[in-house]
Amino acid sequence: MIEINNLTKKIGENKILSDISFSVKQGEILGFLGPNGAGKTTTMKIITSFWQPDSGSVKIDGLDVSKDSLKTREKIGYLPETVPLYEDMKVHEYLKFVAEMRNIKKEKIKDRIKEVAESCGLSSVMDKTIDQLSKGYKQRVGLAQAIIHNPDVLILDEPTTGLDPNQVSEIRRLIKEIGREKTVIFSTHILGEVEATCDRVVIINNGQITGEGSPEDLAKKADPREVYYVKIRGDKESVLRKLNDMIEVEFVAEKDKEDEHTFGYEIRPYAGKDIRENLFKTISATDNWSILEINKLKASLEDIFRELTK
User: Fold this and answer.
1) Do residues 31 and 194 make contact, with C-beta atoms less than 8 angstroms apart?
2) Helical pair 106-119 and 165-178, crossing angle rounded to 10 deg
3) Out of 113, 214, 273, 287, which could bridge 269 as a Cys pair, Cβ 3.0 to 4.6 Å?
4) What is the spatial distance between Cα 203 and Cα 33, in angstroms, rounded to a whole number?
5) Strand ordering across the sheet containing 262-269
6) Count of CB atoms situated within 10 Å of the CB of 270
7) Cβ neighbourhood burial of 94 (10 Å; 0-12, 13-18, 19+)
8) Which residues neighbour 29 within 8 Å (Cβ) at sequence distance 6 or greater?
């Protein structure tokens, strides 16, 4: 549905995007993840035809956004980071205005407004002026304007910025519902957003793609060494010394405390080393020490993001 090939963009002497390529399948919610200033918004502005690239191409359903700008815009719904609302208008007036701008047939506008109001949870505020709404409801209005023409593609740039946890949860739910039928690119630098909402992730940093795939796929590109969490009953200082003396161990960190004699530790072995057998022997060889828990830790999306954007 969306094909981005060798996209490059400079502003003055500053290269914002450097030859990036990725694709989004129909019906997929793609998390576009990166730190502030990574190039996320620039990419979205190019996809939506607000900016032109210096080189490379973006195709929406086979149409080049540079050569067929009007046709591709018809296929796209766009929610920028700053929601474009006329706050002196009532919600139903604003949606009617957007529907007319989107060339929805006059006889279908009323029904379409009703549909998007219900799907975005706006039915109770249709007669309020937009400036009376909370930020969460304004975001809903922004989503409603983005989908009112029933686009094939939805581009969302930081849609939950500044919302409280309840509002964030509602916007996530709406995005997931919309994503059942649309192709969605969902830009954020908040890791929880991606895990809660997206099917797949593209990580961008300094204008370059540094990771792409599911969290499991990305974990393979992060540090491949295993990390173990171990809870041990025994004198903390002695345990730390014994663990650090193990030839397989690169580092040990104290993680938590259960009581005066029981502590949790994070242990990273050297690449290719299995610590389990020697760990049990080391702890068992000491009187009154015991292992209460051992788990192999999986790389979290936070770990992966930190590894791929450092």
Assistant:
1) yes
2) 130
3) 273
4) 5
5) 249-259, 262-269, 227-233, 290-297
6) 12
7) buried
8) 175, 176, 179, 184, 186, 197, 198, 199, 200
pTM of the model: 0.76
Q: How many CB atoms lie within 10 A of CB 14?
A: 8
Mean pLDDT for 98-120 is 95
Q: What's residue 10's pLDDT?
A: 94
Q: Look at strands 200-205 and 29-33 and give their pairing.
A: parallel
Residues 6+ apart with CB under 8 A from 80: 44, 157
**CB half-sphere exposure, 184, CA atoms < 13 A:** 30
**Closest by alpha carbon to 104, among 112, 114, 115?**
112
pLDDT given for residue 81 in this prediction:
85
Name the residue type at position 66: S
What Cα–Cα distance (Å) separates residue 176 from each residue in 118, 216, 303? 15, 21, 25
The residues, any chain, with a CB within 8 Å of residue 41's CB and separated by 6 or more, are 81, 157, 187
**DSSP codes joined into one string, 186-210:** EEES-HHHHHHH-SEEEEEETTEEE
Mind listing the pLDDT tens digit for each residue in 145-163? 999 999 999 999 988 877 7
Which has the closest alpha carbon to 158: 168, 147, 170? 168
Q: Give yes or no for a contact between 193 and 186, defined as CB atoms under 8 angstroms apart.
A: yes
Q: How far is CA 231 from the centre of its chain?
A: 33
Name the residue type at position 298: K
Strands 200-205 and 208-213, bridge-based pairing = antiparallel
